[in-house]
Structures are given as structure tokens and as C-alpha cells.
């Protein structure tokens, strides 16, 4: 699988492109060499045949047909296994002289050249071989064939072709290996940057991309990214400090103002003034809730992994939260269904998880009209513990589902309802601390409105993890012996 992922990288594809260009260049070079070599050898054979024909033509002009027959017979008799092939026949292909018995099959080219096989079919006494000859007519209707045995030339061409094929194969293999080795080094450097970036995105803002000190392109990229991260962290800390300071500094005077308004509300007798004071108290409560939520989210984001992580039975925690909200759902005449799978355990901060669960149930009840339906479920899904809340409320459009976790963001349909747009931001912060993920989907796409289903997936405790934690608890209760600490490194499922 790792090899396949490496083959998809841009560095390997670039090396592959270079390999194709290099292999194409090698192929063209070898093809040119083969063309020149084979062409030269073929031209030499043709020149030898032409020289032989020229000699026979001179004999024919000086001595006539009988002299031509005599010279052919002399040459065949002098060297019966010679490379040169002769055949002189009448117009009816009756043999007059030569080392072939019958005329070979095959139609000659425009220049009179023909390629054929030397075999018993043409009266060849030796092993089958390839031959190339030229045919022309002699005055008086005679036919003359003069050729050469080209079997060795053909074998040499095959050897060259085989060498070229093997050379191309070796070239491609070496280029592929070189591309793999080159890309592997590049991928390692990129993977270091990716891994560090992922950890930084998961909240480890103090991490920086390591450098090798070689001052190459990757080191320069890492240094630029590190400087950018330093600047981003500085700006984020400044903004967070300002917002936290504002929230903290304003919370105290707002609390005093709210108490004074409440005292005013209790002291006035005029109904109109009492109503105005009541609205002012409600607005002050809303402002205080907003500031408290901001401070709570800021603490969660800077808290990272909570030190209060303990074993939590998710079904029991959700059951406790449902008891608090069943009465609220009854006031709106909403059906409140629970499906809690027992024994779903995870490691987490009980208070934060309870706050997350309460926020989601409260949102479902708030944004679902009267006579609607609320569903709460806990289940185990593979290695995850899943908490799910579904409703038949106004829902969230698909193009806004990625934005609702931003602070103060509110869906257009919900702006008329009370709220500050911080509930899902708080839920997201709690889920991130517990290494969880949140999935938003429509409850029923066929209905209008479609409703909303919020599912929070968090790593569950496996049975092996439970046994290890039980063993640790027993070791903690048992008397310590020697230097044993009873600590065991475990992995989250």
C-alpha cells in the first residue's frame, strides 16, 4: 500500500516523465544505429551481387551464351558451397547452369530483387537458409538469377534486435529504479512536513518543521513555514488575549448591571417599567451567557488534552442528560426517544462530555417545533463510541454545515430564535479534546424541513484497554515492591 501511495506522488510522476523522455531518446539512438548498421550490411550484399552481375555481363558480351554458361559452371564447380547463388534457365525455366535446380517462388520487386528460402524445393542440398537475389532477362529469352546467402546477415540483424530489446528493457528498469529512489528521498522530506503540519492542525501549535541544515530547497521551505507559524501563533495569541480580556473585564460590570436591573425590577410598581426592566435583565443574561461561552471555549482550546481523563460510560452519561431535558421536551409536546447501547466506554473528561451532550440535546429541542420528534442514541461503531442526536427541526443547509462550528455563526433560519452562535463551537472544542469528529446530516431528506442529525464519533475503550486499566488499578492498590511502578503504555483503540 505504501508503494502504491508513492507511485501516485508528483515526484515519482516527474521521475517517470524523465524516464519516458530518457528511454525515448535511447530508443531513437538505438533505432538509428540499427538502421544504419542493417542498412549498411544489406547495401554491401546488394553491391556484391551487382558486382557479380557486372562480371557475368562482361563475360556474356565477350563470349556469348555459351561463355556465360561455362563461367557459371566453373564458378559452381570451383566452390559448390559458395555464398553466391546462380541459376540460368530458358524462357520455360529449363535449367542451363547454376547451383539451384528450379526457379524460386516469389514475385520480384520493381528493381528485380527477390528474397526466398534456400531449401530442397529449389534443389538446395544444404540446410535451409535465407537468400537474396536479382533477376533479369538475357537476350534470347534466357533468365538469369544471381544472389547471395544472407542467412548470417539475417541472424546478425536478429542479434542486434535482441540486444536493442534487452538494452531498452534494462534502460527502463534502471530508469524506474532511479526514479523510485529519487522520489523516495523527496517523499520522506515532504512526509515530515505533512506529519508536522497535521499535528499542528490538531492543536500542537508549538511544533515546528525540522530542518537538516543543508540549506536546500526543503530547508528553505521549512524555515519559511516555521516563520509563518510563529507569526500566526503570535497574532492568534494577541487576538485571543484581547478577546479574553474583553470578555473577562466586561463580565463583572455586566453582572453588576444585571443585579441592579433585577433589583429595579423587584422595586418598580408600574407594569410598563417592570416589562422594560424584565427585557433588560434578559438581554443582560444573554450577554453574560455569551461572555461565559467565549471564556469557556478559550479555556478548552488552550487546555489541549485534559488531565481529567477517566473511564466514562457514555450511555450512563447520556441517560443523566436526558433526564434533565425530558421535561423541556414535554413542555413543547415533543416525542423524546432514547436508544442507548449499554457498556459503551471511552476515556474522557466527564464534565466536558456532559456539557457537549447537553448542548446538542438543548439545540435539538430549541430548533424543533412543537409536536416534533427528538432522538438520542448511543452505540458502538467499530472502534468508535458514537453519540447521536436527531431532530425534525429546521435543519442546516448543506452549504452551511461546514461553517456552523465557527464562533457566532448562525444559520439564517435560526436568527429569529434566542442564541449566540457559540453552542456548536463549544461542542467542536470538546470533541477535539477527545480526538473525536462530528458529522452533520439530514434526518430525513424526503421531509421539509429535513431536520438535523449530529453524530459525534470518539475513540472507544477496547476490552484489552479495559483489562489493562483494571490491572493498573489493582497494582495501584497493591503494596509497592522494589522499583516497579505498575505503569503500562497502552494505545487507544
TrEMBL record:
Enzyme kind, highest EC tier: transferase
Keywords: Coiled coil, Kinase, Membrane, Phosphoprotein, Transferase, Transmembrane, Transmembrane helix, Two-component regulatory system
Coiled coil: 254-290
Histidine kinase domain: residues covered: 245-462
Region (Disordered): 472-493
Gene3D superfamilies: 1.10.287.130, 6.10.340.10, Histidine kinase-like ATPase, C-terminal domain (3.30.565.10)
Low complexity composition-biased segments: 476-493
Localization, UniProt: Membrane
Protein name, as recorded: histidine kinase
Enzyme Commission (EC) number: 2.7.13.3
InterPro entries xref list: HAMP_dom (IPR003660), HATPase_C_sf (IPR036890), HATPase_dom (IPR003594), His_kinase_dom (IPR005467), HisK_dim/P_dom (IPR003661), HisK_dim/P_sf (IPR036097), Sig_transdc_His_kin-like_C (IPR004358), TCS_sensor_his_kinase (IPR050428)
Domain HAMP residues, every copy: 184-237
GO molecular function: kinase activity
Catalytic activity: ATP + protein L-histidine = ADP + protein N-phospho-L-histidine
Transmembrane segments: 12-35, 163-182
Cited CDD domains: HAMP (cd06225), HATPase (cd00075), HisKA (cd00082)
Major location (coarse): membrane
Amino acid at each position: 500500500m505504501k508503494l502504491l501511495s508513492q507511485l501516485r506522488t508528483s515526484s515519482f510522476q516527474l521521475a517517470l516523465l524523465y524516464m519516458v523522455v530518457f528511454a525515448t531518446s535511447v530508443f531513437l539512438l538505438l533505432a538509428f544505429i540499427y538502421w544504419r548498421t542493417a542498412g549498411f550490411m544489406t547495401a554491401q550484399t546488394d553491391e556484391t551481387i551487382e558486382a557479380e552481375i557486372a562480371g557475368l555481363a562482361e563475360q556474356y558480351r565477350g563470349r556469348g551464351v555459351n561463355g556465360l554458361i561455362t563461367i557459371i559452371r566453373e564458378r559452381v564447380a570451383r566452390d559448390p558451397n559458395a555464398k553466391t547463388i546462380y541459376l540460368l534457365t530458358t524462357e520455360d525455366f529449363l535449367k542451363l547452369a547454376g547451383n539451384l535446380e528450379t526457379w524460386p517462388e516469389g514475385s520480384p520487386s520493381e528493381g528485380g530483387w527477390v528474397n526466398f528460402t534456400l531449401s530442397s524445393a529449389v534443389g538446395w542440398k544444404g540446410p535451409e537458409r535465407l537468400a537474396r537475389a536479382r533477376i533479369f532477362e538475357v537476350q534470347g529469352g534466357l533468365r538469369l538469377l544471381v544472389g547471395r546467402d544472407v542467412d548470417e546477415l539475417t541472424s546478425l540483424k536478429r542479434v542486434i534486435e535482441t540486444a536493442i530489446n534487452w538494452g531498452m528493457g534494462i534502460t527502463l528498469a534502471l530508469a524506474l529504479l532511479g526514479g523510485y529512489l529519487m522520489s523516495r528521498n523527496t517523499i520522506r522530506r515532504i512526509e515530515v512536513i505533512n506529519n508536522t503540519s497535521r499535528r499542528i492542525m490538531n492543536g500542537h501549535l508549538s511544533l515546528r518543521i525540522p530542518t537538516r541544515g543543508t540549506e536546500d530547497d526543503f530547508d528553505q521551505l521549512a524555515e519559511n513555514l516555521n516563520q509563518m507559524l510563529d507569526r500566526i501563533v503570535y497574532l492568534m495569541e494577541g487576538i485571543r488575549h484581547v478577546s479574553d480580556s474583553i470578555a473577562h473585564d466586561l463580565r463583572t460590570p455586566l453582572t453588576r448591571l444585571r443585579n441592579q436591573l433585577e433589583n429595579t425590577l423587584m422595586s418598580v410598581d408600574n407594569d410598563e417599567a417592570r416589562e422594560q426592566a424584565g427585557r433588560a435583565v434578559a438581554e443582560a443574561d444573554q450577554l453574560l451567557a455569551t461572555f461565559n461561552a467565549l471564556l469557556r471555549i478559550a479555556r478548552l482550546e488552550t487546555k489541549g488534552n485534559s488531565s481529567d481523563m477517566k473511564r466514562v460510560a457514555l450511555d450512563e452519561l447520556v441517560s443523566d442528560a436526558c433526564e434533565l431535558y425530558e421535561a423541556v421536551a414535554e413542555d413543547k409536546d415533543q416525542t423524546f426517544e432514547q436508544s442507548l447501547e449499554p457498556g459503551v466506554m471511552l476515556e474522557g473528561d466527564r464534565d466536558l462530555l456532559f456539557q457537549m451532550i447537553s448542548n446538542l440535546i438543548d439545540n435539538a429541542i430549541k430548533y424543533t417545533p412543537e409536536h416534533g420528534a427528538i432522538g438520542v442514541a448511543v452505540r458502538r461503531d467499530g472502534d468508535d463510541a458514537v453519540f447521536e442526536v436527531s431532530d425534525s427541526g429546521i435543519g442546516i443547509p448543506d452549504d452551511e454545515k461546514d461553517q456552523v462550528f465557527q464562533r457566532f455563526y448562525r444559520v439564517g433560519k435560526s436568527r429569529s430564535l434566542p442564541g449566540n452562535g457559540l453552542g456548536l463551537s463549544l461542542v467542536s472544542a470538546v470533541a477535539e479534546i477527545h480526538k473525536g469528529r462530528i458529522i452533520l446530516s439530514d434526518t430525513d431528506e424526503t421531509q421539509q424541513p429535513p431536520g438535523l442529525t449530529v453524530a459525534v464519533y470518539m475513540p472507544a475503550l477496547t476490552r484489552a484497554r479495559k483489562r489493562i486499566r483494571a490491572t493498573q488499578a489493582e497494582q495501584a492498590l497493591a503494596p509497592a515492591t522494589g522499583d516497579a511502578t505498575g505503569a503500562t503504555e497502552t494505545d487507544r483503540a
